[in-house]
């Protein structure tokens, strides 16, 4: 294993984190908040570790999938461990486990929170909390590839290990150009939403933090009432952009090239739009009540866009919705957004391929001599892709079951425990009951919070990087035991 390149990348990640903390530090200075010193201390700590690691050039920059998975897992853990320090040092979140939970929830764009009164936090801390969504949305290593030249085609292993979805390909021949292009689209959409919210009369601080949460499909709100107190226009803008950030960014690339036919023939996009439309229709019918179907469309559209894209913002407490509507939301939690978007969940493309696989198997049983090829967007689905999806699905179920078993030790009700695991593993944010849109995760024990932190990282990194790291640690322990017995 090329350890030198792993430490080199971790060093750069910490340097970048130090640079990004300048923004909340300035924000704290503007509002005259003493907690801003916590950012300065953390910046110094990041640079103290990051600079020596990044200045030591690796002898070889060649790395493979194994190094890619391990590096991604270690980078996200390092980013979180250091990123939690401002909360802890300032005393805004005095328990480090809680601070770590909050920051992992931020970077993984989950949006689950342990805070009981978010409005009590300083502005600088709120900005850092929301900024982590934007940083984690597209991926910190994708950002690194965009600004630092990495020789060799092996850089694709980083992008594939960090980017959500069953497969990631280069949009243009060079990885750095691909990363830059993705961030240009990401930044452009972010700025557009900020402008539209400002036009609608939203204060600048609110527009920035809400947009960071929308772009990263994270969901950290800065008010105890979530998004409920904002105007209908502002909520509509957020609804539209949550939906847009849940679309595969390859579609936007094709639109920029004016290849409209190629962009709109995407099967995943068609399924995504259909699922959203059907869910809004059904929930509106179910929740209309005395006010009627049309009055229910606006809140239904907001919550459907929020849940399927795994953003987690809320305008209403859907704990009080009928069971039918709540079941739809739980199903959307598992489906998630499109591959190659900033959203979480299992991804629409995986669900589509699984459905096609089931149909293919049933057809094969009925017509044994027939030979059919599985296709998506007119292209053959390789057996390797199908195999990886099946492995992902099995690993997902095992992690979900194990997490639910441990979380149940806290003796919360089943709905709370089940949706807490679903909300964190799928990077949603809110669940139901105690962890609903107007609740939080503060009631859980430190053990449960640790399990849910692992779930958030596993969900954001598509499971395999975290499993690869666990396997590496296990092999090191086993080899150490063998050495001792000798």
Automatic annotation (TrEMBL):
Keyword annotations of the record: Cell inner membrane, Cell membrane, Ion transport, Membrane, Metal-binding, Potassium, Potassium transport, Transmembrane, Transmembrane helix, Transport
Residues binding K(+), per UniProt: 109-110, 218, 310-311, 427
Subcellular location: Cell inner membrane
Coiled-coil regions listed: none
Primary localization: membrane
Recorded topology in the membrane: Multi-pass membrane protein
A GO molecular-function descriptor: metal ion binding
Protein name: Putative membrane protein
Source organism (scientific name): Herbinix hemicellulosilytica
């Amino acid at each position: 294993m090329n350890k030198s390149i792993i430490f080199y990348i971790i060093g750069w990640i910490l340097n970048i984190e130090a640079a990004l903390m300048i923004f909340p530090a300035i924000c704290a200075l503007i509002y005259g908040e003493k907690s801003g010193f916590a950012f300065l201390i953390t910046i110094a700590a990041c640079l103290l570790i990051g600079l020596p690691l990044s200045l030591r050039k690796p002898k070889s920059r060649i790395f493979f999938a194994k190094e890619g998975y391990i590096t991604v897992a270690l980078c996200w853990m390092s980013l979180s461990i250091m990123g939690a320090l401002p909360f802890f040092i300032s005393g805004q979140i005095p328990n480090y486990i809680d601070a770590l939970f909050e920051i992992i929830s931020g970077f993984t764009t989950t949006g689950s929170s342990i805070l009981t009164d978010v409005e009590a936090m300083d502005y600088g801390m709120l900005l850092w909390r929301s900024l982590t969504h934007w940083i984690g949305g597209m991926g910190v290593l994708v950002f690194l590839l965009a600004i630092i030249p990495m020789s060799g085609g092996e850089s694709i292993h980083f992008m594939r290990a960090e980017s959500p979805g069953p497969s990631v390909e280069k949009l243009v021949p060079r990885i750095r150009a691909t990363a830059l292009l993705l961030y240009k689209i990401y930044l452009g959409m972010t700025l557009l939403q900020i402008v539209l919210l400002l036009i609608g009369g939203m204060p600048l601080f609110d527009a920035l933090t809400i947009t960071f949460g929308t772009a990263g499909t994270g969901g950290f709100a800065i008010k105890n009432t979530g998004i409920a107190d904002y105007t209908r226009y502002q909520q509509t803008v957020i609804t539209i952009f949550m939906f847009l950030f849940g679309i595969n960014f390859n579609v936007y690339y094709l639109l920029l090239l004016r290849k409209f036919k190629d962009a709109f023939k995407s099967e995943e996009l068609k399924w995504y739009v259909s699922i959203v439309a059907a869910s809004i229709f059904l929930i509106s019918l179910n929740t209309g009540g005395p006010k009627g179907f049309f009055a229910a469309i606006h809140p239904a559209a907001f919550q459907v866009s929020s849940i399927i894209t795994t953003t987690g913002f809320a305008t209403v407490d859907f704990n009080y919705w009928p069971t039918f509507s709540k079941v739809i939301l739980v199903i959307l939690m598992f489906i998630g957004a499109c591959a190659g978007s900033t959203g979480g969940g299992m991804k629409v493309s995986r669900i589509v391929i699984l459905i096609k696989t089931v149909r293919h198997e049933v057809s094969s049983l009925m017509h044994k001599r027939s030979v059919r090829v599985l296709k998506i967007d007119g292209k053959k689905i390789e057996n390797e892709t199908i195999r990886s999806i099946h492995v992902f699905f099995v690993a997902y179920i095992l992690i979900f079951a194990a997490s639910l078993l441990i979380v149940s030790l806290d003796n919360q009700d089943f709905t709370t425990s089940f949706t807490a695991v679903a909300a964190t593993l799928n990077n949603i944010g809110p669940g139901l009951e105690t962890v609903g849109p107007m609740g939080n995760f503060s009631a859980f024990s430190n053990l449960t919070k640790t399990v849910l932190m692992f779930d958030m990282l596993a969900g954001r990194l598509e499971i395999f990087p975290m499993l690869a790291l666990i396997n590496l640690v296990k092999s090191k322990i086993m080899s150490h035991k063998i050495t001792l017995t000798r």
